[in-house]
């Protein structure tokens, strides 16, 4: 397959914006699509914040950051966003019905040959692939939050994915500064979230059942394991919307209670996690 130079990112939330900036920083031409002018208008502020983090963590120079921003464009026109796409990465909320609807629109509008990647945290590619109309070109490329530091790129196809597409996306992941990880068999949560989600679920269940406060749960984990972050600090990186959707879709009584509390005490008040300045903790 030809080099994947032109990337379209669908969804400009926490991970969508990070993926876009990371790819542009490593030389790709990136178009970011979102559903409203109001959302798109907030992207320059996100680019500025990410620029500061790249200076802090990657010693990025002004010249590198200017070049990255010059490779970024934003639009609310899906057809325009997809017109030259070699690869599409979708990063919309973790809801199967929504993802299938979005992928049906992408599949109908994208050029022939465009590769399709979902960044879904928990959903299997096989649950979405047929909605695209081109399942042989559909697979998952999963990023950890703070992609420039926690830079795993987990690549997972489904039974009908063309092996050449898997190879091309593994190469693309390496080209944008990720460590490509080939997940050889469909697994809900890939490798990373298969390990991480049980920890986060245990923490939220301790919280919802009144066993301990957020700060004490985090303190216990950090102190006993030497981890730099507790589970609720990790959840602030992940974002409240993702936490809400995952618990809403899990179906257990405890998870439903977690989802309800997250919505009423955090999302409804605009406390969406680190990216908004407040989640379980408050940030500068």
From TrEMBL:
Pfam families: 3HCDH (PF00725), 3HCDH_N (PF02737). Keywords: Oxidoreductase. Its EC number is 1.1.1.157. Residues 7-185 form the 3-hydroxyacyl-CoA dehydrogenase NAD binding domain. GO terms for biological process: fatty acid metabolic process. SUPFAM superfamilies: 6-phosphogluconate dehydrogenase C-terminal domain-like, NAD(P)-binding Rossmann-fold domains. The record marks 142 as: Important for catalytic activity. Pathway: Lipid metabolism; butanoate metabolism. GO terms for molecular function: 3-hydroxybutyryl-CoA dehydrogenase activity; NAD+ binding. The keyword Metal-binding does not apply. Transmembrane segments: none annotated. InterPro entries: 3-OHacyl-CoA_DH, 3-OHacyl-CoA_DH_NAD-bd, 3HC_DH_C, 6-PGluconate_DH-like_C_sf, 6PGD_dom2, NAD(P)-bd_dom_sf. Residues 189-283 form the 3-hydroxyacyl-CoA dehydrogenase C-terminal domain. Belongs to the 3-hydroxyacyl-CoA dehydrogenase family. This is 3-hydroxybutyryl-CoA dehydrogenase. It comes from Kocuria varians. The lineage of its organism: Bacteria, Bacillati, Actinomycetota, Actinomycetes, Micrococcales.
């Amino acid at each position: 397959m030809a080099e994947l130079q032109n990337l379209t990112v669908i969804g400009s939330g926490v991970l969508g914006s990070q993926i876009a900036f990371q790819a542009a920083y490593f030389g790709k031409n990136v178009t970011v699509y979102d559903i409203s002018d109001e959302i798109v208008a907030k992207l320059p502020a996100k680019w500025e914040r990410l620029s500061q983090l790249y200076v802090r963590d990657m010693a990025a120079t002004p010249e590198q950051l200017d070049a990255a921003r010059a490779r970024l464009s934003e639009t609310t026109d899906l057809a325009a966003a997809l017109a030259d796409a070699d690869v599409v990465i979708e990063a919309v909320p973790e809801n199967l019905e929504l993802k299938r609807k979005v992928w049906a629109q992408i599949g109908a509008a994208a050029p022939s040959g465009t590769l399709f990647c979902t960044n879904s945290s928990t959903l299997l590619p096989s649950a979405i692939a047929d909605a695209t109309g081109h399942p042989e070109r559909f697979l998952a490329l999963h990023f950890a939050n703070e992609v420039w530091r926690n830079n795993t790129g987990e690549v997972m196809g489904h039974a009908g994915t063309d092996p050449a597409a898997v190879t091309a996306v593994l190469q693309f992941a390496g080209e944008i500064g990720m460590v490509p990880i080939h997940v050889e068999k469909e697994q809900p949560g890939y490798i990373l979230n298969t390990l991480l989600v049980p920890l986060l679920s245990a923490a939220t269940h301790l919280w919802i059942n009144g066993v301990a406060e957020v700060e004490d749960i985090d303190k216990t984990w950090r102190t006993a394991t030497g981890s730099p972050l507790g589970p609720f600090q990790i959840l602030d990186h992940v974002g409240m919307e993702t936490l809400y959707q995952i618990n809403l879709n899990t179906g257990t009584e405890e998870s439903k209670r977690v989802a309800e509390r997250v919505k009423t005490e955090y999302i409804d008040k605009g406390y969406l996690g680190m990216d908004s300045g407040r989640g379980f903790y408050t940030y500068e």
